[in-house]
Structure to design on (802 residues):
């Protein structure tokens, strides 16, 4: 068993990054995720593993530092919260276009605009539908515990290098600020330069005599070529959809009503399922772990079993659109959400389930 | 030309100059007479002469030199508009033994990328910035740049730059020389063979600084023409540059070995 | 066993660290734990609260509206959280600054005048440990030994010389807590 610690989600992700052999973190402070960079700075990762940590002058600069390091094959990451993630969208689109690996953590807060510093899930569309300009997708992971904040660092880097695609960890103020028991895996060393060059033959690491020069770019002035590039990207996204769907089910086997929720909403909804079952309502919970790729087949399958689905999100109803697409009209799909930094209680979710789906 | 005469001139023994293999065979996309081509060449020559191809990572900006990676035969990254110093920071911090440079225009470096430029300089990042100042946005068709001279006409200052309304030309190079993070700051030009030699010397100095890990950033401004944007012939443009740009942007070293001159 | 606790008071009273020590003690005895603070500008001088959950099972919602135990250290928190204690639950409060004492009949109410006691002991900083001691007396869900271990884990090494004072405070809290209904 690994080392047990009591940590905030924001701290756990930083510690896990050091232990996972991540090469660099570039960030800029914003609530509720400043503990990420604060933890890094306090830990002196440079002394522990040689990992680089730098406070950039802006989120724009930070994501572009990630771009630079990633284009040279390094495992680089950044983190921010909603307003800062909007600023990073430029760089994220460029990374997607140039097919660069890299991990972006969004500890979502309520918006729009400066909004509030309290937890929210209002950035679902931005994360899963592209967010920046151009036709691209991020792989989006939604941790619902401090343990998953830690575990998803390695998973995110593995996926992002496997597909050469940026990965977003879509968290929120609850998961970032909450402390839980977390089991940390044993540290692995960062890759050596030789290992990196072997694993990333595409990276700009300096052109030796024997190979063509490596160019990292998202530019293609010839639209025919750019279309080919887009077709290639879309094929990659379809492949990701075919192989990387992850979800978790809770009391679904005999469920007559399904709650769908991710991240902290899924934690709250888990309690709602318990409360509902105590009242004799056969409720279950489907928690997507990957938001892109979305578990549409599983949703469609469950739509053949349950009488209705309640989507629970801390927003006006975003994932509910993906659920409705997957259900294709088979059964009613309703949404219960809170906005602007408000958090639904387990009890109000049960009430919504009764009112909107069961009828009463 | 008479074929015999041609053969006589273009022969092995008359060879005095060859193109460095660090420039590809791709035909340059720059307007004839533009300074970008010469700047590319001497930068690549220095890297070649110092045997640094295998250790070089360059960054192309957004601007006319957006396609610099088509011409420079080294590993290159293409940056979003203005962000090249941030990319370079990411590279150099994680690959401290590589030679890293950015190549940026004035719109890229002194407008949209001002923050990235100043902060990379101020942190004393150990890379080279080559800054092509042609006083205009070349790529997008000749709009006003932060470096456009007072009274100078561009498509977005059609009556001439009115400093009351549009502010003053930004002397980025003097500005970054004030920052303790810069180690070598100079302003050069490439319009005459003598100036080309001087600029090449400056590039060599900057590369040596970086290779020997001298503390701080090297910043080389090259005052250049944009004959298309300025709507002049190449020779007119060079003369206009000497008469108008140089008085405002005087050539010469500003900071050497970390000391302001 | 699942114990869902809210600790609420002013910022600076050590509310968050009390919760953290409790959570650490839970880890020491192999429990699942969660610690969810109110965060943001609220914390600066205003009210601060933290939800701590100790459980033998995987913890579902870290955010609650009904609690087994409420530990209340100012009037605002009394007004907000007294109604949220589950019937049969426990409310522990410090009488200092309380103008409206708890009124519910369906819960167990304990009073602990920890602020006064800390002042008497000349150890204002360990106020929160007196309160924690009181809690441990009425809800002995974690052992004192594990609380000391938790304290060691959550305090940076440079404060470890303060552990004896903290221990004293825990014992004192156990002594002075009294039933109030
Ligand atoms: C975010 C963004 N805004 C605007 C542009 C359009 N754009 C492309 S190049 C350029 C100006 C480049 O001027 P400069 O840096 O001076 O380089 P030059 O073309 O003169 O060499 C602009 C505004 C862009 N590509 N991206
Ligand atoms: S537009 Fe100006 S800067 Fe661009 S290539 Fe032509 S002359 Fe050079």
């Amino acid at each position: 068993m690994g080392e047990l610690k009591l940590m905030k989600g924001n701290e756990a992700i930083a510690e896990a990054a050091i232990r996972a052999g991540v090469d660099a973190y570039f960030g800029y402070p914003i609530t509720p995720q400043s503990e990420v960079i604060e933890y890094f700075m306090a830990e002196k990762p440079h002394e522990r593993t040689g990992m680089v940590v730098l406070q950039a002058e802006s989120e724009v600069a930070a994501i572009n530092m990630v771009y630079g390091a990633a284009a040279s094959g390094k495992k680089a990451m950044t983190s921010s919260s909603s307003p800062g993630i909007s600023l990073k969208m430029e760089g994220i689109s460029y990374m997607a276009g140039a097919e660069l690996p890299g991990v972006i953590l969004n500890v979502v807060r309520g918006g729009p605009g400066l909004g509030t510093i309290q937890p929210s899930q209002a950035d679902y569309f931005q994360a899963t539908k592209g967010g920046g300009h151009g036709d691209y997708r991020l792989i989006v992971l939604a941790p619902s515990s401090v343990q998953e904040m830690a575990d998803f660092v390695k998973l995110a880097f593995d996926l992002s290098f496997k597909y050469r695609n940026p990965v977003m960890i879509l968290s929120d103020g609850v998961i970032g600020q909450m402390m839980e028991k977390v089991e940390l895996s044993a540290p692995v060393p960062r890759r050596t330069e030789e290992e990196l060059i072997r694993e990333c033959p595409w990276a700009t690491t300096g052109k030796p005599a024997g190979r063509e020069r490596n160019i990292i770019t998202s530019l293609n002035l010839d639209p025919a070529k750019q279309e080919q590039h887009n077709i290639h990207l879309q094929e990659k996204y379809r492949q990701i959809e075919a192989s990387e769907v992850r979800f978790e089910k809770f009391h679904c086997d005999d469920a007559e009503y399904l709650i769908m929720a991710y991240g902290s909403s899924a934690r709250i909804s888990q309690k709602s399922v318990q409360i509902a079952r105590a009242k004799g309502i056969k409720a279950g919970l489907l928690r997507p772990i990957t938001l892109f790729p979305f578990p549409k087949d599983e949703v469609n399958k469950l739509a053949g079993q349950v009488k209705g689905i309640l989507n629970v999100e801390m927003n006006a109803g975003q994932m509910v659109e993906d659920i409705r697409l997957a259900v294709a009209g088979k059964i009613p799909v309703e949404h219960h959400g809170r906005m602007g930094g408000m958090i639904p209680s387990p009890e109000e979710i049960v009430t919504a389930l009764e009112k909107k789906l069961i009828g009463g | 030309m008479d074929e015999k005469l041609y053969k006589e001139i273009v022969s092995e023994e008359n060879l005095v100059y060859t193109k460095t293999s660090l420039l590809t065979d791709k035909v340059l996309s720059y307007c004839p007479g533009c300074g970008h081509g010469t700047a590319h060449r001497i930068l690549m020559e220095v890297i070649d002469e110092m045997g640094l191809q295998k250790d070089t990572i360059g960054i192309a900006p957004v601007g006319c030199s957006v396609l610099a990676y088509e011409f420079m035969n080294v590993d290159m990254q293409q940056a979003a508009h203005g962000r090249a110093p941030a990319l370079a920071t990411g590279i150099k911090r994680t690959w401290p033994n590589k030679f890293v440079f950015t190549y940026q225009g004035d719109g890229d470096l002194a407008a949209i990328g001002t923050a990235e430029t100043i902060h990379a300089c101020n942190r004393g990042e150990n890379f080279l910035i080559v800054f092509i100042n042609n006083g205009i946005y070349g790529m997008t068709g000749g709009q006003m740049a932060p470096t456009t001279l007072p009274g100078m006409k561009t498509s977005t200052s059609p009556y001439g730059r009115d400093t009351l309304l549009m502010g003053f030309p930004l002397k980025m190079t003097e500005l970054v020389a004030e920052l303790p993070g810069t180690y070598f700051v100079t302003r050069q030009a490439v319009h005459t063979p003598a100036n080309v030699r001087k600029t090449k010397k400056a590039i060599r100095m900057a590369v040596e600084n970086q290779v020997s890990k001298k503390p701080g950033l090297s910043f080389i401004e090259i005052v250049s023409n944009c004959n298309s944007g300025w709507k002049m012939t190449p020779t007119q443009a060079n003369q206009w540059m000497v008469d108008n740009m140089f008085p405002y942007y005087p050539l010469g070293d500003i900071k050497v070995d970390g000391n302001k001159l | 066993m699942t114990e869902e606790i809210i600790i609420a008071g002013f910022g600076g009273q050590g509310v968050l660290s009390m919760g953290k020590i409790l959570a650490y003690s839970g880890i020491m005895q192999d429990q699942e734990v969660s610690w969810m603070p109110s965060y943001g500008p609220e914390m600066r001088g205003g009210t601060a609260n933290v939800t701590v959950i100790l459980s033998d099972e995987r913890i579902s919602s870290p955010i609650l509206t009904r609690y087994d135990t409420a530990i209340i250290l100012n009037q605002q928190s009394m007004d907000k959280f007294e109604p949220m204690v589950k019937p049969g639950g426990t409310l522990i409060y410090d009488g200092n600054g309380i103008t409206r004492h708890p009124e519910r009949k369906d819960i167990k109410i304990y009073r602990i005048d920890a602020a006064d006691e800390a002042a008497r002991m000349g150890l204002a900083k360990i106020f929160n440990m007196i309160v924690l001691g009181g809690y441990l007396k009425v809800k002995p869900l974690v052992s004192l030994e594990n609380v000391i271990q938790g304290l060691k884990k959550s305090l940076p090494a440079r404060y470890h010389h303060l552990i004896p004072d903290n221990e004293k405070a825990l014992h004192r809290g156990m002594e002075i807590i009294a039933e109030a209904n």
Q: What stands out?
A: Residues B 30-31, 34, 36, 64, 134, 138-139, 226-229 surround iron/sulfur cluster (ligand 2) (CB under 6 Å). Chain A has a mean pLDDT of 96. Chain A touches chain C through 25 residues (CB under 8 Å).
